[in-house]
Specification:
The chain has 1 helix and 11 strands. The protein is mainly β. Strand 7 and strand 8 form a beta hairpin. The radius of gyration is 13 Å and the shape is globular.
């Protein structure tokens, strides 16, 4: 059974930091891009960041560039999202995803696998 399990969400004050992790299991994800999406209450799910298998290419939404860092450890089947300088508008449920980079960068985001999400709340 394929699973993507996110962790690391929580409540943080504006300007603070959080590090999200996503542990993948159930199959090999060799060759898969891994990414992060978020969905705020009442909004559509939106792309945040994605990284290729090799880590050689990383893409970010304009809203998080310079503040968030996407990385992965293939030996641990884990992907990370370091979030710094958090803003109240970053408040959302953050989802981990695995699939093709093309699917992650274009709606309707037809990635193969999704995690169940972890809530990030940034207070002002």
């Amino acid at each position: 059974q394929v699973q993507l399990v996110e962790s690391g969400g929580g409540l943080v004050q504006a300007g603070g930091s959080l590090r999200l992790s996503c542990a993948a299991s159930g199959r090999t994800f060799r060759g898969y891009a891994m990414g992060w999406f978020r969905q705020a209450s009442g909004n559509e799910r939106e792309f945040v960041a994605a990284i290729t298998w090799s880590g050689g290419s990383i893409y970010y939404a304009d809203s998080v560039k310079g503040r968030f860092t996407n990385s992965r450890d293939n030996a641990k089947n884990t992907v990370y999202l370091q979030m710094n300088s958090l803003k109240p508008e970053d408040t959302a449920v953050y989802y981990c995803a695995a699939g093709s980079m093309a699917a992650m960068l274009m709606k309707p985001y037809g990635v193969e696998y999704w995690g169940k999400g972890t809530l990030v709340t940034v207070s002002s």
